[in-house]
Amino acid sequence: METIPRWTLDPVPGLAEYQLPLPEGTSVQPPDLAAAHARVLTALTGEQTEYDTALHVGVADGILRLRYRTDVLDAGAAARIAGYHLTALAEPDRPTLLSEDELRFQLDELAGPERELPDLRVHELFEQRVALHPDTVAAVQDGRQWTYRELDSRANRIGRALLARGLPREGVVAVVMERNLDWLAAVLAVLKAGGVYLPVEPHFPGDRIARTLARADCRLVLTERGSDGNIDRAARKLFVDTAYAEGHADDDLGIPVAADQLAYIYFTSGSTGEPKGAMCEHAGFVNHVLAKIDDLGIDAGRTVAQTAPQCFDISLWQLLSALLVGGRTLLVGQDTILDVPRFVDTVVRGRVNVLQIVPSYLEAVLAELEQRPRELPDLRCVSVTGEAVKKELVQRWFDALPGIRLVNAYGLTETSDDTNHEVMDRVPDQERVPLGRPIANVRVYVVDEDLVPVPLGAPGEIVFSGVCVGRGYVNDPERTEAAFTDDPYRPGERLYRSGDHGRWLPDGKLEFLGRRDSQVKIRGFRIEIGEIENQLLRVPGVRDGAVVVVRGTQLAAFCTGPEPVGADEVRNKLAASLPSYMVPAVVHWRERLPLTANGKTDRKTLTALAEELDAGESGAPDTPAELRLAAAWAEVLGIPADRIGRLDHFFDRGGTSLSAVKLAVALDRAITLKDVTRHPVLADLAGLLDQHH
């Protein structure tokens, strides 16, 4: 960083002045200074906001004088900003305001530490552990358990069965199985055979499965009896029990697998509605798993809970990380996860040491522990990921369980999963919970539209470089080209544009500011939804909240908390810290926010609900099916039947995945959990009920 040539304190309290000599012979006219100041403000904030009143710049006697409010800037920031002004005046055509020192600092010093990776793949690191302690228990599911030797033997036999069917190097194998011990063996088998793992959940619609296999150019499906119902009959299938019965040798395959070889493909939802398959290589895979082992404290004898569905990339490190160090994987079934008390009991009985869940589910776990307090004697570390974790939730966690570390993990499927870890043993000082520093061998830049780093502390797009960056999207050159490019600062390395916005904090940690596509315009004003939600959480009595746009013209807020707070009180509190155009027109109070299948706040459902509420009160149920459903809702949700309307939304009225299961039982399985998820409005679900009879 640049040194400070001159520094004087201003006699006015709360103000300070930084002075920087202009290069000899420099002449500055008022329009030049105004243009330079405007450029600096835009670079600092993306638009001219709080810095308008925090900064005053002038030139006199060959000295640039920057006067600033000390509650907004510190001395180091003032020095940098003065330097930006000088660059804007002296080099108006320079593409960046950053000095060479600051540019190099951002590109090098803010990167994750360099770490030499072993010249081994994840499955080879597992094989080393098999040799060291073959009879140690490797994986547990319900009442079953396999030792390292048993797991390795089964994986080797499946791997040879794949090779016997002509699996080529980097041949894609779709694994269509439930989350069980055979699934674990199947994943290892694909890797050992030099194939590419493609997870597919058995209950996905057949059309989606077919499109996924076609896009990935997948010729071979590894599955099990009962999980193959939605697989196209034309697909070439290998059942695991068939592979076991073929009598293949069970020693290691010894197939050479290179570090830059493709390891897996995960399909994620795309903004166009067509899923895209992110391709990641073995080097990035190993790098990520080793970072998890280090930062989450996974070592010999530790138990890691495997909780995530197969199609979420976090499922992979949960499945395999413990097996690289002599630990144990505990597979937790989806029915257990849907029952929070049972899940907590499973964590206790399974002596789980490391756990990762989404923040919304962590809140449910905390609510359970508040209702039925109990000890979690073996739990050492909980990681949250998948959505922004709110500071209030972190506070509740440490109030309840001060001895258990909380790790905020951030990353994307395209970057081999998590790239940043914020390891916390207390509530952070910042307003937002940081994303933390990059993990080893990962470089993160915060840049403008031209991939030029923005000033420290300024908002910009988060982009990634290094071993973590995947190859792109399988057989999808157009979307690959839009998101993946060459790193302009390190020739020959790939760079991924995330679409996330963030900024660097003074301590070198990354802060998440929201998705690029969460920015909206209301009456011509550009609004970041996250900013309103952060202020919403500061309103006394509001525990959780979300803001959506209704019909593109109006903001609506949804709040939860121990006791309802009046809508006018919430709006008045927000009006004290936000401009009028950012204050939601309406505020709805709910028992809880609806969640998606993976535990995130369901914004689509909230938007639809806000539009329904905006249209008026829901009418009373009147058809036999609607009346039957209303009675079942009342039983499951614990609310009077006469307070249920025909346009009410099941999850808005307090429904959860677990209560949806109970609803299906109450209706004698006339509907399924999937039906409730897809048709949560009572009238729609009643129509489906009529169709089934």
Automatic annotation (TrEMBL):
InterPro entries: AA_adenyl_dom, ACP-like_sf, AMP-bd_C, AMP-bd_C_sf, AMP-binding_CS, AMP-dep_synth/lig_dom, ANL_N_sf, PP-bd_ACP. Gene3D superfamilies: 3.30.300.30, ACP-like, N-terminal domain of ligase-like. It comes from the Bacteria. SUPFAM superfamilies: Acetyl-CoA synthetase-like (SSF56801), ACP-like (SSF47336). Residues 620-693 form the Carrier domain. This is Carrier domain-containing protein. It comes from Streptomyces coacervatus. The lineage of its organism: Bacteria, Bacillati, Actinomycetota, Actinomycetes, Kitasatosporales.
